[in-house]
Amino acid sequence: xxxxxxxxxxGIDLAGEGGLVWLKMRNGSASHxxxxxxxxxxxxxxxxxxxxxxxxxxxxxxxxxxxxxxNVDGFTLGNEYNSSSFDYTSWTFRKCPGFFxxxxxxxxxxxxxxxxxxGSVPGCIIVKCVNAGSRNWSVYHRSNTxxxxxTALYLNTNQxxxxxxxxxxxxxxxxxxxxxxxRDETNRLGDEYVAYLFAHDDxxxxxxxxxxxxxxxxxxxxxxSDTVVSLGWEPQxxxxxxxxxxxxxxxxxxxxxxxxxEGSNDRLLLANTTASxxxxxxxxxxxxxxxxxxxxxxxxxxxxxxxRPMKVPETASEVFAMDTQNGTDPGFISGFPVDLALxxxxxxxxxxxxxxxLMGRFKLTxxxxxxxxxxxxxxxxxxxxxxxxxxSASTTYSWMFKRAxxxxxxxxxxxxxxxxLALNHNLGVIPQMIILKKRSPSSDPWEVYHFGNTAEPxxxxxxxxxxxxxxxxxxxxxxxxxxxxxxxxxxxxxxxSGHSYVAILFATLxxxxxxxxxxxxxxxxVVDCGFSSGAxxxxxxxxxxxxxxxxxxxxxxxxxxxxxxxxxxxxxxQSSNDYIDPDSSGFVVTSSAxxxxxxxGGNYIxxxxxx
Length: 611
Hints:
Blueprint: E1 6-9, H1 14-17, E2 19-25, E3 33-36, E4 40-41, E5 46-47, E6 67-71, E7 74-77, E8 88-94, E9 100-106, E10 112-115, E11 122-129, E12 138-141, E13 151-154, E14 162-163, H2 165-168, E15 177-180, H3 184-187, E16 192-199, E17 214-220, E18 227-230, E19 235-244, E20 251-254, E21 266-270, E22 278-280, E23 283-286, E24 289-292, E25 300-307, E26 320-326, E27 332-333, E28 340-345, E29 353-356, E30 362-363, E31 373-374, E32 385-386, E33 392-401, E34 408-414, E35 421-424, E36 433-440, E37 447-450, E38 460-463, E39 471-472, E40 485-488, E41 500-506, E42 513-519, E43 525-528, E44 535-542, E45 550-553, E46 563-567, E47 575-577, E48 580-583, E49 586-589, H4 595-598, E50 603-610
Antiparallel strand pairs: 1-7, 2-3, 2-8, 4-5, 6-7, 9-16, 10-15, 11-12, 11-16, 12-13, 13-14, 17-25, 18-24, 19-20, 19-25, 20-21, 21-22, 23-24, 26-33, 27-32, 28-29, 28-33, 30-31, 34-41, 35-40, 36-37, 36-41, 37-38, 38-39, 42-50, 43-49, 44-45, 44-50, 45-46, 46-47, 48-49
């Protein structure tokens, strides 16, 4: 950040809809700041803040400090929580039926119902007195004991569950009201309060209005074991707390900072303390929930989980971009949060590198069978790019991808050694191309499924790190993928017990991506991808004979003359030849292309992304 006023765009309409913005310094000790649309400071031109880690009253800074405006696509920061010397994070919750609501009310000192607009029964309610200090944050959670309306938690402490009729009047909330009694923290006569309401499993979202985007639940762990929590979808945000068996912090994890697969460290912030961000393996996201890692005690937990967005993109620029290493953070600019990235110095024999948000700060080498290695520069916590570096390199390129329904998904999993192993995914359609690699602890080839390999692609595999032809092997357990799962057999490359893996899934999305095949003619051959402005990215491989994985892109040039190509299975520097030409519908494989690209009667597969 820059230490002066700046707009933070996040695509959320706070000006028209209202909501909550939660700020925290990451790399220094400082309070959490909570500012919402219901508590403007009229005299000072900004918004009042509360600290989730303290019992104090709200405060307003004079002048351009903290949040100075709520916008149709985010918010504007003043000079507080905006220092160029520190890193920050923000979580934004828009008011929306079935998801979240903010309510302001006045205490009466006796039981009263508070109307809300959530449109469903709240799963969690967080209440704070805003005008008086020494008042704890009171939390109702539907999974906090068998009768949650009789108990409460304090957001600003690590305290265990508290019993008391005076919090919620021993009355469960409804889809239109929640109830408070006489406790000072929730309903003292004449005092002012704010309440944040989170929905639970309200299934009004998705194409068919039958999906939820938030769940407030609980689980019990057994000491020494991991605990699998099923949500029905992959989370992007999890706040979790121990509620019995001992003291426990309110731990916040999210996918922007790092909610990662097993073997990597999550980045944790604690809502009840001023502590800076810490790292440890705690929550492993899965395509249908999360795994809570081994806890040393038998404990009960509550959580709030919010679904990872799965919007169908409308243009290719929403999900694919390229850039050269620019010497600022982030090192490569994409215009969207990056979920998958390739990196290569194009004029040298340096190897390819591949990273994914779910893998954390680790990288793989597409042109080799090597295991993953740690690299602190492989960082993804920006809204518009990736890679943490202070150096520029005009010949180092990155190809950047975003997960999206119908286009791309990334799945990390652990092998079991038993077959078949059916793995869930969130691509939303049948995967047409799967690139799979063992991450650790030993090396194995890259396995590739492509529906254009043969008439029975589930019986064949290719290797990304090799120019070899298709090979009959049981990598996919002779089972075609579905719109919900793909299947692997057993063995080191795909499913060895105690080993970790990553799978990258692509599909054809009209006007944006094309996974396809063609038969060579040795003459100029138009490959129609259904695009309108040509291709920005093309990857081609011959499957009935040896052939490299040829890669072109529009940044380095796809032109009606010689252009540069790279080989994804080789660390070699780029070469220049007239092997493909542009075409508005896709691309043209030229008559001068070698047999690896256009032999008469040869069989080829490709992945193309629109310009």
